Amino acid sequence: MGKLNRIFSKYSMFGVPILILIVLILGFVFEFFYKKDSLAQIFFIIGIIPGAFQILVESFIAIKNKTFALDYIAILAIFVAIISKEYLVGGVIALMISSGNGLEKYAQKKAKSSLTALSNRIPNKALVLESKTKTRIEKVTLVKKGEKILVRKGEIIPLDGLLISDYAQLDESSLTGESYFVDKIKGDKIRSGTINLGSSIIIKVEKEDKDSTYRQIINMVEEAQEEKSPLIKISHKYNVGFTILALFMAFLAYLIWRDFSYVLAVLVIATPCPLLIAAPVALIGGMSSSAKKKIIMKNLSAIETVSKVDTLVFDKTGTITLGKPILKEIEIKDKKYSRKDILRIAEAIERNSLHPFAHSIIHEARKEKIPLTYAEDVHENLGKGISGTIGKKRFTINKGKESSVNHLHLLEGRKIIAEIIFEDILKKNAKEILEKLKKKGMDVHVFTGDKKEVAEKLKESLDEGIQINSEMSPKDKQDGIKNLKKKGKTIAMVGDGINDAPALALSDVGMVFSHEENTASSEAADIVFLGGNFSQVYDSIKISKRTLKIAKQSMIAGITLSVIGMGFAAAGFIVPLVGAILQEVIDASVILNSLRSIRNGK
């Protein structure tokens, strides 16, 4: 049955409807031009067979998957057409169902276009080095940890690993959203999905395909596509009621007219139901629209929940601020080191860290053209510091007990040799977006671990109506979410760090700015923003609201038109053939309306 399902998925979009149409046209020619009614009836019956067979197969699959499908009404409609000898109508019903399924598949394919492009971007083959002179082409899924791969200029890196070559220049914009190029030297971490801009490089694979950075993003997308949202589940539930109503009206038509042609007219208008088409197409279209803006919706239900959010809770650093504090000053404590020495050491240790301070150090080192140095045995203790060995000396970067939140100490062994001072600033559009959210009637809170004086300085830069809570631990943030939920709020938590994970998991919908898609914060979130553009928060809400509006609009309009059509058919105003054409128009209209969710409407 699985093989049969795949065959239909591949060929039924256009093949079956075209086959039925050709057969029906031949029957029509024989009946109306050559007056050979019996031969025409044979062609009409032949036209019914592929459509009926397709419906039976898909209905069987639906029963096997324990889902309710309105194809049962289609089967009944074809059966009534046969017993009433309305073979042409039966053929048209088969054509209508088959082309309707084709339209739905086309719409879903169109809606998934951006998501499919995301998946198709990663290479499916890699060039594996077997020796210095020998290579082999291997499927990416079969490349093992520890093997070495060759990546040529302009190619996308397929797997995570360590750089074996002396130097590489990469474009990491697909993961970070940042347009500048990143320099790497021997021993640095390389992430899949990034582009090699320089000459050919050799990478030692550290993560197999299933665990790679870019594969994590693709998995989020694929899981979201398979998941059924509450709206889709509700549409299937209402579908049962619609089926019962359709059968009742068909029965009523028979009682009134005692003629199966009126029953048939009611059934064809009820086949298929827009409830089954509108919600999936619109929601997947919304996901596709989000993906264009580098917003990854990890599940369809997130779209529905975001559309209902009335309270937004933001982390501060890396969320509403740049998350890349500007390196303001270096205070040298040990005069045997120069500013260039301090930057060289700090950059070597921090180069593979994801901490916001690390990005600032790296940026400053690049700006001052500091020579690249390799640090060995780098170890990062999240929240406490990072250390590494350069030459024979062990260096550590951490926050001293007496240090301000924006100060770091650089130590040689246990001796402080320099203090690195940063300043953090708002993202360029943060204030504007927060004001927009407030105007939309949303409550806005900021939960930060920063000290009170830092929070007070932030408060001066923002709208008065924004509530800022300082010196909050991960547990405090979690408790803050609980308190808001007790007040009946629907909450979106927006963060970017591992310390936000508990609050993200507890909120109704978690949103995270992430440059490393398999961190704890990304795992706990429902929506992942690739890059640091603060407007993605507003865009995700705007897209979600618009998507839900379109989905409900399509469902209500489609059902209303179908019910009105069934009423006219039961009253004898619509013949079966016209009813079939009318329902096809309704279905096409519903699909086209749902596809509007792909576009970023104003």
Sum up the structure in keywords:
Rossmann fold, 7-stranded mixed sheet, 22 strands, 602 residues, alpha+beta, 4 domains
Structure write-up:
The protein is an alpha+beta fold. It folds into four domains: 2-113 and 221-284 and 545-598, no CATH class; 144-207, Calcium-transporting ATPase, cytoplasmic transduction domain A, CATH 2.70.150; 295-321 and 427-532, Rossmann fold (3-Layer(aba) Sandwich); 326-423, 3-Layer(aba) Sandwich (Calcium-transporting ATPase, cytoplasmic domain N), CATH 3.40.1110. The protein has 22 helices and 22 strands. The strands form four sheets. The protein has a seven-stranded mixed β-sheet, sandwiched between helices. A six-stranded antiparallel β-sheet has the order 2-1-3-9-4-7, with no helix packed on it. Strands 12-17-16-15-14-13 form a six-stranded antiparallel β-sheet. Helix 3 runs antiparallel to helix 4 and helix 9 packs antiparallel against helix 11 (275-292). It is elongated and about 105 Å long. The mean pLDDT is 81.
In a few lines, what is going on in this structure?
The chain has 602 residues and is an alpha+beta fold. Helix content is 52%, strand content 18%.
Write the layout of secondary structure elements.
Elements: H1 2-11, H2 15-32, H3 37-64, H4 71-83, H5 87-111, H6 113-120, E1 125-129, E2 135-139, E3 148-151, E4 161-163, E5 167-171, H7 173-176, E6 181-185, E7 189-190, E8 195-196, E9 201-205, H8 213-226, H9 230-257, H10 260-269, H11 275-292, E10 295-297, H12 300-307, E11 311-314, H13 316-320, E12 326-332, H14 339-350, H15 356-367, E13 376-381, E14 385-390, E15 393-398, E16 407-412, E17 415-423, H16 430-439, E18 443-447, H17 452-461, E19 467-469, H18 474-486, E20 491-495, H19 501-506, E21 509-514, H20 520-524, E22 527-530, H21 535-570, H22 576-594
Parallel strand pairs: 11-18, 11-20, 18-19, 20-21, 21-22
Antiparallel strand pairs: 1-2, 1-3, 3-9, 4-7, 4-9, 5-6, 5-8, 10-22, 12-17, 13-14, 14-15, 15-16, 16-17
Helix pairs in contact: 2-3, 2-5, 3-4, 3-5, 4-5, 4-10, 5-11, 5-22, 6-11, 9-10, 9-11, 9-21, 10-21, 10-22, 11-21, 11-22, 12-21, 14-15, 21-22
